[in-house]
Structure formats: C-alpha cells, structure tokens
Write a structure and sequence with these properties.
The structure holds two protein chains of two kinds. By secondary structure, chain A is an alpha/beta fold. Chain A has 15 helices and eight strands. By secondary structure, chain B is of the alpha/beta class.
C-alpha cells in the first residue's frame, strides 16, 4: 500500500478506501529520538526561527522520510500550514487539498468530502465500509478514555498516547487493534489510582509529553485530553455517515463550537482545572482570551516551543497553579 | 478562632494575629533580633510566643525566604507566592490582578486569574531592584527613605546595573551639582527601570503593590503609566503575614 502523509486529521476513511496507508507526520516527528534534526532541516531551508515547531517538524519529516504524497488541509488549519504546503509542492511532493469549511454548514462539509472522494475516485459505499471497521477500533480508544475518567485506571499519558495514535492507527489498522485490545485488558485488571486533582488538557498535543508525569507528582491527573480525543472521533458511533462525523468534530471549526463540547466534558469529567497548552507563535494562543472568559473554571495557559521537556519556569508555574487549586478543592469539601 | 501568621523577610519579620478573620494585632521585629531574641533551636526553630506576648493560638502559619528558615515548630509553612496572593485576596476582594511585591532583597510578580496563580517571576542573581538599594542610596544622600521616595520629577539617568556602582555614580551626580530633589527622583526612577523587564510579561489592569517599597510615592507614580489602576492596600508590609492568617483560617 502506498503511504500518504497527513499534516492533521482528515477523512482517513477515504484514503484507506483508495488503498493508501495514512501516516500522521506529527506523530513521526514527536516520537523521533532526534526530533531536533527535523527542526534543523527546516530552518536550514529557510523556515524562520519564530515559527511553530510543528510546521518545521513536519517539513523535516517529509524531507527525510521520502514522503511523496500528502494531504494538505488548506481551510480549517492555520496559514502556516498553507505556506508549508506550498514549499512542499516546490520540493516535488504531490499535495491533495482538503478543506474543513469555515462556514461549518452541513452542506458545505458534505461538498468538501464529496470533492475529496472524487479526488481519490472512491464511492460513499466503500468509504462507509471502512468507517464501520475504523469505528470498531475507535470504540477501543473510547474505552481507554473511559478507563481514564470513569475508572481512574488509565494514566493521562496513556490516554494521550492511544487517542493521538488513532489519527493514523499507527499505519496498521489490525496491528493497532490487537495492541489496543491487549492494553484495555491489562488496564481493566489494574487498581484505580486516585489523585486529588482532576485536570483537563486542552489545546494542541504537547511538545512536552513529560507534563503528564509531572502533574502526577503534584497529586493531579489529566482525565481529559481535548484535541487528542477529537482526533480519535469519540462520537463517530453516533454519526449516521462520514459527513456527520466530520461535521461533529471540534478541532478545525470556530471556538464557540469547541466551547460547547468543552463545557460538556468539564461537567461529565468533574474537572477541577484546565491546562491550556499553546505552541509558541501559534494563533491559537489568542483563543485563550475567549476560553478564559467563556469557561467557568481555573485555566493555566502554558506554552511550548522547541524543547521536548518542560522548562523550569513552566514547572514553577504549574506547581503554583496546582498548589492553590488543591487548597480550593480541600476548602470546598 | 485565633490564627497567627509570620512572614520572615530578609530585613524584618512581620507578625499578624487574626481573630475570626479580623486583624487584632500586628508587629514587626528586625529579622536578626527575631532569631536572636525570640527563637531557640532544637532540631527545629522554636518561636517563643510568650516573649512576643502572643497567647492562645489555634493555628499558626509561616512563610518567608527559603523553606528551612521558615520551618518553625508548630507552624505550617507555605510558600511566599501563595502567602502574598492570599494576602491580596484578604486586603482587596479582587480575583484578577497582578501582584508586585518589592521586599528588602527580592521582587516577586504574580499574575492571578479567577482566584488562582497562573504566572510568576522572581528576581534572581541580583537584588538591585529591591528595598535595600533604596536604603543604601538614601544613606548616601543623607536623607530618610520616606523623604527620598516622594520625589519623581526630572530624574537623571543612573545607568549602572550594579547597586554598589550606582552609589559612586550618584556621588558623581552630586558633584555635578544636581539638586537633591532630582537625585532622589533619579534613584527612584532607576529602581523602576530595573523592575520593567520583570513586569513586561505581566500585563494586566489592576496592580497590587506590596512590600516595604509599596509606600513609595514615586514608584507608584511611575507604575501608574503601566497599569490602569494601582490598587492601594492598607498594610502592604504585612501582606505576606496576613496571607498566612487567611490560609490558616480558610484551608487548615
């Protein structure tokens, strides 16, 4: 099967139906031991220092791993992605465009998905067969999510890892399914870990995955990973078709739509506070203003850049925030 | 309920006693004299409350610089940042603010949103932006620190990064015949300028100023340019100790 690179989540059902193996370039970048190498490649080729690290990482991965085709999201993602796509085209990579329409109207989403299907020459029927198969695996990711916030058996990091891996099923659907089944089984046999603070992680996935272990030492657990969960399509079983599935997806659309889902999850998961991660130089940091005003819960905004471990200052900020959050929780009781 | 709060600063120890959430007693003792005259040591620092004339305490909370120094027997130690933020809550009823505490040796800036600390910065390596600098410079000028802090107009630039070099720089300016008022302004302005890099990340509407330097007219005047409102509090010097009491009565 031919590989096709993804810069963000797109209707993978269509790609798989067309005989492709989707590869999430973000995942290759962040799990690589020498991830810095990818950033260096991009900077040597002229990407500015003051630019989102993810963009540079994706570029480096494409250059180093002989990626020949990618799906480029031209609407619903940032303008940096758009420019990245142009450079990749310049380097001879074939780009298939896809858009999450700003209007967020059902008929517009339908139109874009139809266009995408035509591009790959696949029919809705074939796509729905794949969607059903993928939903079986998404159900397992959802189970891990429930093992996190209902049973308190899965850690925040595991929750992050398995949901984010659902963006491309690690390049092998069946092997990933076997993996997930094993993990779910093992988790169920664990004893619950109860920490005092229940945290939500919102924003793009972190450059610094050590944040999960760090908060555990401060008596806190992440029981919600917003965007990672969206990547795993937790509501896909309720969607009647692929159109609805990609309509009911909060990542690429407006902040208000995102806030509705956030409010629901804050309640359901009984969150005490939220850590809002933003990437340095990303426009999403501006959304923090709206989120802080619209969500009635303490929010700490932290920022990551190139480093893949938390810096001392961010650690100090997390400590101070969680310390007072703990006081408040104890006082409430 | 009677709660005792102690803030062990580098120059002075601030002591506040609250009964049912009201301050009934406050006092300051020089740090040197506090350890020498009111404390003994037996594995842990023991505070002689009788000598301080404080009786019938239900809870006691301490804060200050360095965990070991503030770990007093019978006291619950909390970190300084938290103590100051809680002090800010007690003294202002605000939930969103920037708190700037300028003490004898250290400066802290804290951002508080929705009643929780979300950002903080401390000075490190150097204490040239603190109260001790003002004390030294007032000594050179042979006037009281209170009098010096009233002047803010027409400052001349004092450029030294180092507080000790600043002293000789100031003497140079005296020799040039610059008026004492302007020299006072210059000292105050140079302290303000050293604070600016620390404050640049802490934009906000309301600024609560605490610590010994909070009573400086000049510093307040300069800071007014950077914030919509400088919130005055009654006891800027006792803010940390008040925060200890607040913590004790609310959370212990």
């Amino acid at each position: 099967m031919k590989k096709i690179g993804l810069t963000t989540t797109v209707p993978v059902e269509i790609l798989i139906a067309a005989g492709y193996t989707p590869i999430d370039l973000n995942n290759i970048f962040i799990t690589s031991r020498d991830y810095m190498k990818y950033i260096d490649i991009a900077e040597r080729d002229g990407f500015p220092r003051s630019l989102c690290t993810w963009i540079k990482g994706i570029y480096g991965v494409c250059m180093q791993n002989d990626i020949k085709e990618i799906v480029g999201v031209v609407e619903g993602e940032c303008s940096n992605t758009k420019s990245l796509i142009e450079v990749l085209e310049l380097r001879g990579i074939k780009v298939y465009p896809f858009s999450f329409p700003h209007s967020h109207k059902t008929k517009d989403v339908e139109h874009e998905i139809n266009k995408f299907m035509n591009l790959f020459n696949v029919a809705l029927k074939e796509v729905e067969v794949i969607r059903k198969r993928l939903n079986e695996i998404r159900a397992l990711a959802k189970e891990i999510d429930e093992l996190t916030y209902i049973d308190n058996k899965a850690t925040g990091f595991e929750n992050h890892l398995y949901q984010i891996s659902s963006s491309d099923f690690k390049g092998d659907i069946s092997a990933f399914e076997v993996d997930l089944k094993k993990v779910v089984c093992e988790m169920k046999n664990r004893k619950p870990i109860n920490r005092k603070l229940r945290l939500g992680y919102i924003g793009v996935p972190p450059m610094t995955p050590d944040i999960y272990a760090f908060v555990e030492n401060l008596n806190a657990n992440f029981v919600y990973n917003e965007v990672q969960r969206e990547f795993a399509f937790p509501r896909s079983d309720e969607a009647i078709d692929i159109y609805q599935q990609y309509y009911d997806y909060t990542y690429p659309y407006d902040t208000q739509f995102r806030i509705e889902e956030l409010k629901k999850q804050i309640n359901v998961r009984k969150l005490d506070g939220i850590i809002h991660y933003t990437q340095a130089f990303c426009y999403r940091a501006v959304a923090d203003i709206v989120l802080k005003e619209k969500l009635d819960i303490p929010i700490l905004n932290i920022e990551g850049d190139k480093l893949n471990t938390l810096d001392a200052r961010t650690k100090l900020r997390l400590e101070a925030f969680l310390d007072m959050l703990l006081d408040l929780k104890v006082a409430k009781k | 309920m009677r709660v005792l709060g102690i803030d062990l600063g580098s120059r002075e120890v601030k002591i506040v006693l609250m009964e049912d959430n009201t301050i009934i007693h406050s006092m300051k003792v020089s740090t040197m004299s506090f350890y020498r005259n009111y404390c003994s040591y037996d594995g842990k620092i023991i505070v002689d409350l009788k000598k301080l004339n404080i009786h019938q305490i239900d809870k006691a909370v301490s804060t200050g610089y360095g965990k070991n120094n503030t770990d007093l027997l019978m006291f619950t130690p909390i970190n300084e940042i938290k103590a100051h933020v809680y002090g800010g809550f007690y003294q202002t009823d605000l939930n969103d603010f920037i708190l700037l505490d300028i003490g004898g040796q250290d400066v802290k800036v804290v951002k508080v949103e929705k009643g929780i600390t979300t950002d903080l910065e401390l000075n490190e390596k150097c204490a040239a932006s603190c109260g001790r600098y003002l004390e030294n410079m007032a000594n050179i000028l042979e006037i009281s620190i209170e009098d010096m802090s009233k002047h803010y107009q027409n400052p001349v630039e004092l450029n030294s990064t180092c507080a000790v070099f600043s002293e000789s720089e100031l003497i140079g300016k005296i020799a040039e015949g610059i008026s004492i008022e302007r020299l006072c302004s210059s000292v105050n302005y140079s302290l303000y300028k050293r604070l600016l890099p620390l404050l640049s990340k802490f934009k906000g509407k309301k600024l609560i100023l605490t610590g010994g330097v909070a009573s400086s007219v000049a510093i307040k005047k300069y800071l007014k340019e950077d914030y919509e409102e400088i919130v005055s509090i009654e006891e800027p010097q006792y803010n940390g100790a008040i925060g200890c009491c607040y913590y004790g009565s609310k959370f212990l």
